[in-house]
Design brief:
The structure is a homotetramer of 318-residue chains.
Chain A (H helix, E strand, L loop, with lengths): L9 E5 L12 H14 L3 E4 L11 H14 L4 E5 L5 H14 L3 E4 L8 H15 L5 E5 L1 H4 L5 H10 L3 E6 L5 H12 L7 E4 L6 H7 L3 E4 L4 H12 L3 H18 L4 H12 L17 H15 L8 H7 L1
Parallel strand pairs in A: 1-2, 1-8, 2-3, 3-4, 4-5, 5-6, 6-7, 7-8
Helix pairs in contact in A: 1-2, 2-3, 3-4, 4-6, 6-7, 8-9, 9-10, 10-12
Chain lengths: 318, 318, 318, 318
C-alpha cells in the first residue's frame, strides 16, 4: 500500500468495528465492510477511530483489526487511529499497522491539553514516539475531545512535524478554519496539507467549496460523500447541493453524539454490509421508535437517491 | 399578560437583542422585532436567553430590554431569561420582569453543577430565590452549559417545584429524552409539563412526533417553526417533513455554535426586521464568504418556500 | 487613595463579604473588618473576589460594598474584583469603584476561554472596556477558573496592556511560573510587574523566595502573611519558615475548595472581626466536627503564635 | 497472597513505576522499592495508579510490572490499578494481575461520566467486566478525574457490587465525606467498607479521626503515614499531629499536581530506593531550584524526624 501524502484527496470512510452480538470481533463483517467501501469507490478507509470503538479493544485486538482491514483493502489506503493514553501503546500500534501495510496513522490530542504550548508540545512528542517515517493525520475534533486548536496552532504542528500530512477537520463550526488554513498556504506560511472533513458530513457541501480535499467520515452512505466530493470538484455546485440536501435529514440524524453510531450500524446492517449492529459495552442501543424514524428518513431519501431504497432487504436483514 | 402554565404550546421565538453598530441597545429594532414575531403568528417570545447576549447587558439594561419587549408584545407571552451567577441578580430581574407583565422566566443551571443532588438542590434554591409565585422554565442545554440532567433529575426538579411549568428541551441528542419524560407522565410519576424544543430547530420534525408541545428557538424564519408545529399537530407528517427539509440546510447552517448568532442577525437584518446585525463585544462577525453562503441557501429555500425570497430587499438592507 | 502601580508589594488581604444571618450585607462588619486589616498592618485589601461571594451580589449591592470598603480603608489601597460575564457590568463596577477611590480593579478570565489567542484577546477587550486609565490586576487561578495561562501568555497580556500592573498568582503548582516571569524580566522581555500570591498562602514561604512581591490571599490570620513577607524580604529564611510552618496545618485546612470560606468566616467570627459567619445561598456551612477541628488547630498554632489564642473569646463569640 | 477484603487497614504505599533514564522499566528498582515498602512496615502496595504513570505503559509492560511487584511483595498485599479506556484492556490486566497473586484491583471512573446514573452504571459494567470474584477498590479522585461522586452514589456503587471492598478516598475537601459514609454504616444503609485515604496524605491527621482505616498514598516517607495511622488508632491524638505537622511542609510540597511525582521520585532516589528519578514522556522534570527547596524541607523535617536526614547520601545519589 502506498504511504499517505499531503496530496491525498477524495473520500475516506470511517469504518465502524463490527462485533457479534456477544461482543466478539466479527472478522467476516470486517471483510464485507471493506469490500463494500471498495465497491462504492472510496479512496481510503480509516479504522479504529472514535467511531470505531477503538478504546474498547485491547492491544492485541486493535492490531488484529487493523491488520484485517489492511489486508483486505487492496487498492484503498488504510489509516489506523492510534490515539492512546500513552506513547508506548501508540507506538506499538503504529508500527504494527505500518508493518501490516497501512498508509498512515491518525492521532487525536488527549483531552487534558489546554494551552497552545501543551498542544504543540504533545504532537512533537507523539511524532517522535511513532518515528518520523510514519505519515500521520492530525485529528481536530473539539466537540468530543475538548481540545481547541487555532489555525495558528495547526500550522505550527504541521510545520514542526514533516510527517504530518493530513488534517482530519471536524471543528464545529469549521468553515472559516478551512479558509484560514488555505489562506496560510496562499501566503506561503503553511506547506501543502491534505484536508479531509468529518463531522458526519454535516457541512460537506460548503467544506468542499472552502477548499477541503474530500471527506473522511462515517455516514452510512459513503456513496453520497463520494458524489458530493466529485460534483463539487467538477464545479457542479447546484447538483452537489441538490444531492447533499436530499441526504441531509439522515446525515443530521446520524450526527447525534453517542446515538449516531447506533444509527450507522443499524443502517449498515440494513444494507447487508455488517451482520450485527451490536456495540461493545458500554454502548448505546437504538430504540424501536428511532429505528422507525431512520426507516422513514431512508424512504424519503430514496425518492431522490435510489441507493437508499432498502425496504425489500430490510425485512430480511433488519 | 397571562402567566405561563404547563399548558403552553406552539412557537416561542428566542429573540436576539438588537444593538446599534456602536453597541448601544436598539429600542426601535426591539419594537420591530416584537411586531414581526406577532405578525407571523408566534405564541410567545423568549428574551435575554443565551442567544440574546444577556450576560453582556448590565442589570439596568437587562431590565429595560425585558420591559420593552413585554410592553410591545400585546397578546404574545414573554418569557425572560434570568439566569445569573447569583440569586440576587436573578431575583431582581425576575421581579422586575414580572412586574412589567412578563408571563414567566427561564433559568439555566450554572456550569459548575455536576451531581444530581447539586442540580436538584440548585433549582430548589433558585425557585425559592425568585419566589414560588413566578412560573419558570427549566433550560436543559448540556452542549453549551455542560450540565447533564437525566430524565429522572428533570422529573425531580419538576415535582419539587410547583412553579416549574415548562422544559426548554435542547439536549443533543434529545429525542429519547422527550419520550422518557412523556413516559413518566403516562405512568403517573410526572405532572403536566410543557415541553418546547430548542437546538435551533434541528430536530423539530421528530421532536414534535415524540411529544413536544412546540418550538422555542431562534431560527430566523419562525414561520417555518410555526408551520411545522401546526402540520405535525394536525397529523400531516409528510407535509411537515417536506417543509422542514426545505429549510434544513439553512437551519443547520444557523445552528453552528457561536457563529450561528451572526447568521441569524444577518438574516433578520436582510428581512428588514432589525437595523443592524451588530453584536456586543466579545462577539463573532460573519465573513463575506459566509454571507454569500447564507444568500445561496436562502435562494435555495425560496424555491420551495417563497418567504425566503429576500433578494430584492437584500440589496437595500444587506 | 493612590492608584495601584507595578511597585505594589506587601500583603493585601482578600476580604470576605460579611452577611447577617438572613443574607443581608452587614455594613458594620465591613467597617470592623477593614479596621482590623489596617490595625494588623495590611498594605491593601481586595474586595469582591471569588472568596468575597461577589457573584451573589447584584450590581447595586456590589457597588455599595466596594464603596464602603474604600471609604473605610484610609491608607490601605483597595482593589475591587470586577470580573463579570459581560463587559457592561464589568465597566460599571470598575468606574463606580474608581470614582469612590479604589486603587485598582481585578479581572479573572471567564471559564470558557481555551486557546492562547482567546485569552489574550479577552483581556485586550476587557482593558478597553474599563478604559486604559484604570490599573488592573490579572488573576491567574486555573484550579477554580479552568483557564490555563502560560508564562508566555501572561507576558503577552502584560505587554499588550499598559494598565495591567499586577499578577494575582495562584496557579497550582506555581513556583516555576514565578521564576519564569522573573526570568522574562531579567532578559528584558517583560516590563515591571507586581506579583502577589494567593492559593490561601499554602506556598507563600517559597513564593517569596522565588521572587513574589507579597501575598494577596484570605487566610484568617493576615498577621502571619505580613510576617512571612517581612521576614522573607529581610533574608531571615529560617525564621520565615518557622513561623509559616506553625500556621501551615491551619492554612492547609482553610485552603479546601468551597469549604475554606466557611472556615475563614468561622475564624474571623471567633476573632470578633465579623458578627456572623453566614454565607449567602448557595453556600457551604461548617459542621460541629469541623469547628472542633479548627479549634484544635488554633490551639496548636497558639503554642507558637499567641495571636491564635482565641479560646476565651470563642466561648462568647462562637 | 490473600485477597483484599473490607477489613483492610493500615498503610498501602502508592508505588511509582521506576524507569531508567532512557525510559525503559527498571526492574531492579521495582524490587528495591518493594523491599523498602516491606522493611518500613507497609501493609500493602498499590501499583499502576495515576502516580505510577500507568497510561504510559503498553499492555504487556503493565502486566510485567504488576507481576514483578506481586512476586516480590511477600506478605504485603498488592493492589493493581486497572483503569483503562475500555473493559477489554481492564479485564485483561485484572485477570493477569490476580493470576500472578495480586490481592485486588483498583478502578477509577473515566472522565466523561457526569450524572449519578452514568457513574453507577459504569461501575456495574466494570465489575461485570472483570468478573465478580475479583475484589476491587473504588477510586474517588475528582480533582484529577473530574468525576464527582456524592456519598449517596458511593453507597449505591458499594451496595450494587459485592466485590467492591474498599474506597480510595481522595476527594478534596473530603473530611465530611468520610463522616457521611461512616454515618451510613451506623444507620445500616451501607455494608462494611475499608476506607483508605489519598491526596498525598495532606489531611491524613483528620481523616483518621473521621474514621478512615488508613492511608493509601505516595508520600516519599511512608514511615510517616504508618506512624500517623498507628498513633491515631492508639488514640494518641497530639502525638499523631506533632509528627504529622513536622512533615506537613514536605507533604504539601509533594502534593502539587503534576510536579509532585518529580518530587517524590527525587526523594526516593535520594533515599537510595530507586536508581533514577526519570519519568517517561510526557513527564515533568524538577528544576535545580526545586531540588534545593526539597533538600531544605528535608533538613527541616529531619530536626524532628531523623529518618528525613538524607544529606550524606544525597551528595552521592543526588
Amino acid at each position: 500500500m502506498t504511504k499517505l501524502t499531503a496530496e491525498a484527496a477524495g473520500t475516506f470512510a470511517i469504518a465502524p468495528t463490527p462485533f457479534h452480538d456477544d461482543g466478539r470481533i466479527d472478522d467476516k463483517s470486517i471483510d464485507r465492510l471493506t469490500d463494500f467501501y471498495a465497491e462504492v469507490g472510496c479512496d481510503g478507509v480509516t479504522v479504529l477511530g472514535i467511531l470505531g470503538e477503538a478504546p474498547k479493544l485491547d492491544g492485541a485486538e486493535a492490531e488484529a483489526v487493523a491488520r484485517r482491514f489492511v489486508k483486505r483493502a487492496n487498492n484503498m489506503q488504510v489509516i489506523v487511529g492510534v490515539s492512546a493514553p500513552g506513547f508506548a501503546t501508540m507506538g506499538s500500534l503504529a508500527h504494527a499497522s505500518m508493518d501490516a501495510g497501512a498508509a498512515g496513522v491518525m492521532i487525536a490530542p488527549p483531552p487534558h491539553l489546554r494551552t497552545d504550548e501543551q498542544i504543540t508540545g504533545y504532537f512533537r512528542q507523539a511524532a517522535e514516539a511513532i518515528g518520523d517515517d510514519i505519515p500521520w493525520v492530525l485529528q481536530d475534533y473539539p466537540l468530543t475531545l475538548t481540545v481547541v486548536m487555532t489555525p495558528t496552532v495547526i500550522r505550527k504542528i504541521v510545520m514542526d512535524n514533516s510527517s504530518c500530512v493530513m488534517l482530519k477537520h471536524e471543528d464545529w463550526p469549521g468553515l472559516e478554519k478551512i479558509s484560514a488554513l488555505r489562506g496560510f498556504q496562499k501566503d506561503g506560511s503553511l506547506r501543502p496539507l491534505s484536508i479531509l472533513t468529518g463531522n458526519g458530513g454535516l457541512f460537506l457541501d460548503f467544506e468542499m467549496e472552502r477548499g477541503a480535499d474530500g471527506a473522511m467520515t462515517g455516514y452510512a452512505f459513503p456513496e453520497l460523500l463520494i458524489d458530493v466530493v466529485r460534483l463539487s470538484k467538477a464545479g457542479r455546485r447546484d447538483a452537489a447541493h441538490d444531492l447533499f440536501d436530499a441526504h441531509l435529514p439522515l446525515i443530521r440524524y446520524e450526527q447525534q453524539p453517542g446515538a449516531g453510531l447506533a444509527v450507522r450500524k443499524y443502517v449498515l446492517q440494513k444494507r447487508g454490509v455488517i451482520a450485527s449492529s451490536a456495540q461493545r459495552k458500554p454502548g448505546s442501543g437504538i430504540s424501536a421508535t428511532a429505528k422507525a424514524e431512520v426507516d422513514y428518513l431512508l424512504a424519503r431519501v430514496a425518492r431522490v437517491d435510489r441507493r437508499a431504497s432498502l425496504e425489500p432487504q430490510s425485512s430480511a436483514a433488519g
